[in-house]
Design a protein that fits this description.
The complex is a heterodimer of chains A (394) and B (233).
Chain A lengths: L2 H14 L5 H33 L6 E6 L12 H8 L6 E2 L2 E2 L1 E12 L6 E9 L11 E5 L8 E5 H6 L8 E4 L2 E10 L9 E4 H7 L8 E5 L6 H9 L6 E5 H10 L3 H31 L1 H10 L3 H31 L3 E5 L5 E5 L4 H28 L2 H8 L1
Parallel strand pairs in A: 5-10, 7-9
Antiparallel strand pairs in A: 1-11, 1-12, 2-3, 4-5, 4-11, 6-9, 7-10, 8-9, 13-14
Chain B lengths: L4 E14 L2 E14 L3 E5 L6 H8 L7 E6 L2 E2 L5 H11 E4 L11 H6 L9 H14 L15 H13 L5 E5 L7 H16 L4 E5 L3 H4 L4 E6 L2 E2 L9
Parallel strand pairs in B: 3-8, 3-9, 6-7, 7-8
Antiparallel strand pairs in B: 1-2, 1-4, 4-5, 9-10
The chains are: A alpha+beta (394), B alpha/beta (233).
């Protein structure tokens, strides 16, 4: 006897009989689709945020902050400290000297296009080498700001999400005003959620004297970080923490990793609800087909084929739901732009990102729903004595 | 037991427990069915006709006693072994046809052959022959709901005989049909018995149907009551 051929026949019959139970089957597909779509939405949000932060960080750029400050907004360092750090070992140089960028980080107001509400936007004062330390930088409109002027350039995400940052616009922040002279992209990472200007101008306008908040330095090798740490520890005038830029952004991203966790918790709770509905659908299916199951068993079909047929039906419905949910998530969420608070209480603009591994997670959830909702009804289908099923079938 | 006996039931008892009450269908049933027989079993509702058919078909087990088919006990077989035994030896014909509504006539008839190792072309040949035998060669692609009751029952007969079983078990095969169609179905069963040597056991309420059988047994309260020609132990 061929278990495969008889199981295939039962699967085909079950699937073909689905229209008889159209609405119940559709409900199971819908429940599975909603659960998968919601899971994917949360995961895409977390993934997009993570990518936006992590793709900004380079392993061979050292990032200095005052000890225990945690984020740029809370940090400060004097010009003397910057000069000491400039001479730290392992830092790359070019014809202009060490590749370092002492930077300032202040907040200006912006109005979100989507909600017309105020939100904090970071205005970064860059050192002369600041651009050279950001390899993904590309000016897409206008020109670079000129040193010593109230000019700034605007990240593409800020232009997209906030009002009034078009090329040539005047931006007011308190008593200060700036002119937008360029638009830049950094490949969608977190730097695109910033405004950039000359650090000395920012020092002057925001009364920072000669102090800075952070320092970036290009390393000749990522391995030089330990050497720099030792240099800082041996000089009592320095009170900076140093880590790679990549590691800094990874830490910043962890603050919002709750999104993925929250998505998984919500999806699990919803999956339990969907499972209850799916179990009902599958028990109804077994009851609806009991006469057919009995007939097949009487003819000589095995327990196994009755089990497999019901399992396959559950899996088919759940997987169809998973596909519908995945397509819906892709249509509605992939590439969707959103903004949320980053580590320095400023807005980080990011895009929802649906990747293959997220779709696999969605498909896995659909298969789990299908398996659990099919297993017990399938067990029932396989174990009901043929004679009892005959009586049910009449 | 005679040499040519296909079935042999010895001291068969069948009891159910319903609530606190025990219901006895058979106390001590003995019977033999010979190879090539066409046996009609009649009796009032609740007399045990269908239970007997289920015992013969291995879809129910006796509480005690022995059920043997070709000198081999089937009452002790596991569910899996019984399914295999049914596939090899039994063809069922039901009152309400029990066709798969989502399969056409051809696919319905093919079902028992999916349990065999026959090739696709061999299966096709057998299905076509079975449909031809019941006069439905031109209805192979019709769905059950596109056929009359009589045609559906003929498809069911084709399905029952397609794997060439030794025994056909018929549960009120004409109970849902008008007289003329019923007679056509019964003539087909008679043909299968006389021309193809199929052993047939048919449960029926209908005395006219029973006339097509070679012999008739009457059951009442779990016992065979009258039939002088019956081969009852």
């Amino acid at each position: 006897m061929s278990l495969i051929s008889q199981s295939t026949a039962v699967i085909v019959m079950n699937v073909r009989s689905l229209p008889r139970r159209f609405w119940m089957s559709a409900a199971m597909v819908f429940a599975s689709a909603v659960v998968v779509a919601i899971l994917l939405a949360f995961l895409a949000m977390a993934k997009g945020f993570e990518t936006t932060l992590q793709s900004a960080g380079s392993p061979d750029v050292a990032f200095f902050l005052r000890v225990s400050s945690g984020a740029e907004l809370n940090s400060s360092m004097s010009n003397d400290q910057v000069n000491l750090l400039r001479n730290a070992p392992g830092i790359a140089s070019d014809e202009n000297g060490p590749l370092v960028s002492p930077e300032l980080y202040v907040i200006v107001d912006g109005i979100k296009k989507s909600s017309q509400t105020k939100a904090n936007i970071p205005l970064r004062g860059l050192g002369q080498q600041g651009i050279a330390l950001r390899e993904s930088f590309q000016l897409t409109q206008g020109r670079m700001f000129a040193s010593g002027t109230n000019e700034l350039i605007v990240g593409q995400s800020i232009l997209n999400e906030f009002e009034g940052f078009e090329l040539g616009s005047e931006i007011r922040s308190g008593k200060n005003s700036f002119t937008v002279v360029g638009i830049f992209t950094t490949g969608g990472n977190v730097f695109e959620s910033e405004l950039w200007a000359d650090s000395r101008v920012i020092q002057n306008l925001y009364n920072r004297g000669s102090s800075y908040q952070s320092l970036r330095a290009k390393l000749t090798s990522p391995d030089n970080l330990e050497q720099i740490k030792a240099y800082i520890e041996n000089d009592p005038r320095l009170n900076q923490d140093v880590q790679s830029e990549q590691s800094y952004f990874a830490e910043q991203g962890q603050g919002l990793s709750y999104m993925a966790l929250f998505g998984r918790v919500i999806s699990t709770i919803m999956a339990l609800g969907a499972l209850a509905g799916a179990l009902n659908t599958m028990y109804t299916s077994v009851s609806d087909r009991s006469g057919e199951i009995a007939t097949l068993r009487a003819i000589g079909f095995s327990h196994f084929s009755a089990f497999v047929g019901t399992m396959a039906e559950a899996l088919v419905l759940a997987v169809i739901g998973g596909l519908v949910g995945s397509v819906a998530a892709f249509i509605f969420f992939d590439g969707l732009s959103a903004a949320t608070l980053g580590g320095s209480f400023t807005q980080v603009v990011f895009q929802f990102e649906l990747t293959t591994d997220l779709f696999i997670q969605g498909a896995t959830l659909a298969l789990i729903i299908g398996f659990l909702s099919g297993f017990f009804p399938a067990w029932r289908a396989a174990r009901v004595p043929v004679i009892v099923a005959f009586q049910n079938g009449r | 037991m005679s040499e040519e006996a296909l079935f042999d039931l010895q001291g068969v008892a069948k009891k159910f427990v319903k609530g606190k009450e025990q219901i006895t269908i058979f106390e001590d049933l003995n019977m033999q069915i010979a190879q090539g027989d066409f046996l009609a079993i009649m009796g009032p509702s609740g007399s045990g006709k269908t239970t007997l058919l289920n015992l013969l078909g291995g879809v129910d087990q006796p509480t005690s006693g022995e059920v043997s088919f070709e000198q081999k006990r089937i009452d002790k077989l596991s569910e899996g072994k019984l399914a295999e035994w049914r596939a090899n030896n039994i063809g069922f014909i039901f009152q309400f046809y029990n066709l798969m509504p989502m399969l056409n006539a051809y696919r319905n008839v093919e079902l028992p052959l999916l349990l065999t190792k026959l090739s696709g072309s061999e299966r096709k040949k057998r299905v076509e022959n079975a449909l031809k035998l019941v006069g439905l060669a031109d209805r192979a692609k019709h769905m059950p709901n596109e056929m009359s009751g009589g045609q559906q029952q003929r498809v069911a007969i084709a399905r029952a005989v397609v794997s060439d079983p030794k025994l056909l078990l018929c549960d009120e095969p004409t109970g849902d049909l008008d007289r003329k169609t019923a007679d056509e179905i019964l003539e087909t069963l008679q043909l299968l018995n006389t021309e193809f040597g199929k052993t047939i056991v048919m449960v029926t309420h209908d005395p006219s149907a029973a006339k097509y059988a070679k012999r008739t047994l009457h059951l009442d309260k779990g016992e065979f009551v009258t039939d002088p020609s019956a081969n009852v132990a």
